[in-house]
Fold this protein.
Amino acid sequence: MTDQRVVDTVSAAQGDPNAQQPWADLGLKPAEYAQFREILGRRPTSSELAMYSVMWSEHCSYKSSKVHLARFDELMTDRMREHLMVGIGENAGVVDIGDGYAVTFKIESHNHPSYVEPYQGAATGIGGIVRDILSMGARPVAVMDQLRFGPLDAPDTQRVLPGIVAGIGGYGNCLGLPNIGGETVFDPSYAGNPLVNALCVGVMRHEQIHLARASGEGNRVVLYGAKTGGDGIGGVSVLASETFAARGHTQNQHKKRPSVQVGDPFMEKLLIECTLELFEEGLVGGIQDLGGAGLSCATSELASAGDGGMHVWLDRVPLRDASLAPEEILMSESQERMMAVVEPANVERFLKICQKWEVDATVIGEVTSTGRLVVEWQGETVVDVPPRSVAHDGPVYQRPLIRPVQQDTLQADGAEALPRPATGDELRATLLRLAASPNLCDKSWISDQYDRYVRGNTVLAPPEDAGVVRVDEQTGLGVAISTDCNGRFAKLDPYAGARLALAESYRNVAACGARPLAVTDCLNFGSPEDAEVMWQFAEATRGLAEGCRDLGLPVTGGNVSFYNQTGDIPILPTPVVGVLGVLDDVARRTPMGFREPGQSVYLLGTTREELSGSEWAHVVHAHLGGRPPSLDLAVEQQLGEILVEARRHGLVSAAHDLSDGGLAQALVESCLRNGVGARVRLPAGVDPFVALFSESTSRAVVAVPGSAEARFLEMCTVREFPHARIGATEGVGDGALLEVDGQFSVPLGELRATWSATLPAALD
Amino acid sequence: MKVGVVTFPGSLDDVDARRAVNLAGGEAVALWHGERDLRGVDAVVLPGGFSYGDYLRCGAIARFAPVMTSVLSAAESGMPVLGICNGFQILCESHLLPGALIRNRERRFVCRDQRLRIENASTAWTSQYDEGVEVTIVLKNGEGGYVADDTTLDRLEAEGQVVARYLGDNPNGSMRDIAGIANERGNVVGLMPHPEHAVDDLCGPSTDGLPFFTSVLKELAKA
């Protein structure tokens, strides 16, 4: 049987200028289609249409977010550039951590695919971000995942959560990358639209940095890795579009399945080792991973960042399915593929190394100086476009913004007015109820499905405040990473919410003793075509950009995910912020758990009556209203300096940031970590409930050994930073108590049982 | 003393196993799956990971790798061989050890700090332990449930071939809580937990895994 399908070529497009084309089905707007015709001076071929449609999709072009993301550049200062080696725009940003080492890290979303097919969606989310990091020239060394689900007891959560967790574990474990942290948050707004964000961090020597550009006329373009199949075709344009949000989910989720890619972590592991050997041998000029928009993205981005021209023989692409049409090959999002630009003299060695790793490699093209990206299929030209027009000249939308009509009403409805516990017994019951609540409970049901030990460099992993990996075994140089976001705060005030996410992540990194250095973000929002969502987005990016400027930390890259909504209801605005810090010696990091009895416990920072958006209001009253906690980043920075200096001089044996659940939850976690109890006295003149459950920012709990106490006090005093000795660690084991003087006490055994029962009860 | 660590496509803990060998005072030598040459090593570690993506069955393809031909004959003539996790699966597939490893009872991958009891301190890989000592070593596997027929299990128990047993909750449904076994001669040991991840207090739960590596170096020095 022969394939009778007619291939649409450039000459056919010239011959039949008015042919009907399915641009609307590909998620394009009439004006966008008109723009292609203008750029090309004719109608696009079906292959060109495929390329433009995926590259001009929201996911690839950032068309709705670009004008707002520009703030990150506008607010960049020299101080922020100091350690920045590669900034926004490449596959991932790169920062200098000293001793000749560079670190690259980034978060990306895989929300919609993970809803449709939880296991594969989440797995390929890990695969994609790992290839981004690899393509910078780095060895990936750790991953983290930021997950958000509907209510724990919702039937759909029970469907998506186990699959997503298994997918992250299945892929990440098989790559041999330790999972060093993350977040798991439950909120009704994510019920029909879970968030699956994944972070990867990689390490390289300065001279190993690689970029995505095709330079040098005559250099060969090599496609290597898995064969190209029919999976994930149009994934970015169909899945990351309004059609996903608008159509009812459940009846359509099966139809979407062909748009979700299928991962093969074994192939990715080979691809990583093979690519690192290719780097080592100096055989790679430019390099780009194939992720969203597949070959369309890789060829157009490489060409437009380089000498501007590329000729591709598309029929040389090794296929898993021989019946694929050229436009499908261009759009396919088959996983575990990379594209490299290689000097002709190096091609043979390049292919030989691929062979050693049993990775398919094929020369499919050449760099040209024509300024055109030309794709040939069986002797006919099917694409002939200026690559920049595909990769960079996508539309830029100044979407309308409206501050939600309800915003004032929402902010006026503060949680401070809600009925609150007063007696010791009531406070005790509240502490236990919060500790058992889905957002605060023990997450080891999840984290125990991830390998946190592989590669032998994991110094801190969940449930610690930040993940820490050693970079250099000789010197102990290492990095710490934390990611955070409280979407409820962001809903109450998106500007403040983004800054609060940044502050929390910063504090977590500082708490383990690392000096914060750089930021990545994953901005998860509803539809950009909803003016109220767009306002949330604009406010959040403004807040984050200004916050980064205030802290002197560059945003090195990240990701925007729009259309996260169920019907017309958007998710809580969720700007996840990741902060990376440096530790000159990981052996001296500060863990979160109390380590031994008889040490003083100090509360650093100021507690105010700030209960709106708190975990208490959420759990006990299902309430969301009011204004989020106030934040002064200068104070946050001071706290950070104290935590980092205290670590450097060995003045604290444990440090834990205060955030969700306030002081009460921080004490619970610090006690349970190593089974060491504590007896604390709340400050006089403050409502004990506020002291325990307020979520004021810029606070931390630290344990100070007696021998260091005088020096620790002096450090706080000299800096005029608020500090109070609230008690001491006391007792070891399940019988030890967490005791709040004059109010209540709880044996650690009871606390642990309550805290750790929630997820197994819901998911086993 | 040279201890070879084999890298198969999909091996993950090979770097860690080499580090453990070096920390124990040996010289780690990287061995490649595609080569028969054992490069003059005195002992071999088959490390953890997902060799060949665990396709077909864990360890089923790795067992046919060229290097395994040499490992098999060396093991039969008494060379100490330690298979960790995926390495244990490969040893079972190679019939150097009896029984098989199946999916965890809970059907989930599990990573945790596992308490174990060392049941046999006379193998080439455990002589530096006190018999009956309780240790904490990293366990991480998706298919770690040890199974064998009753006759085999009874024989393993009777001959002292059970090397280590899980304490507390059985993490993966292994029969008789078996975490590791040895062949009759005691030179070949298969272990589901990962001693190479418990050699350094900073990046592991303990240093309880180090004696696996010091034991073999001691044994080799004696020989």
